[in-house]
Design goal:
It is a multi-pass membrane protein. It is found in: Membrane. Pfam families: ERG4_ERG24. The chain is built from nine helices and four strands. By secondary structure, the chain is mainly alpha-helical. It has two domains: about 140 residues, no CATH class; about 70 residues, no CATH class. It has a two-stranded antiparallel ribbon. Strands 3-4 form a two-stranded antiparallel sheet. The longest helix has about 30 residues.
Length: about 220
């Protein structure tokens, strides 16, 4: 369904381009300022309502309370808050709103599984992901720069390398969670830090922090 929504989003944008031309297709970029103000209002409202819902109208027992209302607002209370039976707010914001709007403005990460839904994911998918990640293109659209082939390929290689490292780090964390200490990091057994913490409800939890990964 995520892939379908992505194709639908791109298809609609291409339809707008075909019917209205470049000016119509570039409308999101031309109205960047008002869009970012609206997105901030939406993201803050969503995070606030998610906090209230997690405290008063939870969908399940899979909640996390830190003892700090500010931390609960930022990190979230519920793991997968829903509206009705089928509308998963976290999946909608990350898989639909965040990723698809990023693509339009720019012309399975681990946070979906483990992070609770609060300001980081609610506001982040509405504002940080689509607007901050595309700020460079917004600048270049207004300040045209002619790059030499060497500069172009250097920037491209840097971007690809950074994204590769990001995906590699996520994969290493995922492998540790799935296979535990038997996973392999660059062919070797991982070095980890065993950590124990207690949540506000008094329940103790254990986790493993990966700090190795030598090639």
């Amino acid at each position: 369904m995520d892939l379908l929504s992505w194709f639908l989003t791109i298809g609609i944008w291409l339809g707008v381009f075909y019917i209205g031309g470049v000016k119509a297709a570039a409308a999101p970029g031309e109205h960047f300022a008002i869009l970012i103000v609206s997105a901030n209002a939406y993201g803050l409202t969503t995070a606030t309502l998610a906090l209230v819902k997690g405290h008063l109208f939870p969908d399940s027992k899979d909640r996390r309370f830190s003892g700090s209302i500010f931390h609960d607002f930022l990190a979230g209370v519920e793991l997968n808050p829903r509206l009705g039976r089928h509308w998963d707010l976290k999946m909608f914001h990350i898989g639909r709103l965040g990723m698809n709007s990023w693509v339009i403005l720019y012309l399975s990460t681990i946070d979906i599984t483990h992070d609770h839904f609060g300001f980081y994911l609610g506001w982040g998918s509405a504002v940080w992901l689509p607007f901050v990640y595309t700020m460079q293109t917004q600048y270049l659209a207004s300040h045209c720069v002619q790059l030499s082939p060497k500069a172009l390929y250097t920037i491209l290689a840097t971007g690809i390398s950074g994204y590769y490292l990001f995906r590699l780090a996520n994969h290493q964390k995922y492998s540790l969670r799935q296979k535990g200490e038997e996973c392999r990091i660059w062919g070797d057994l991982p070095r980890i830090i065993k950590a124990e913490f207690t949540t506000a409800d008094g329940e103790r939890h254990n986790t493993s922090l990966l700090f190795s990964g030598k090639p």
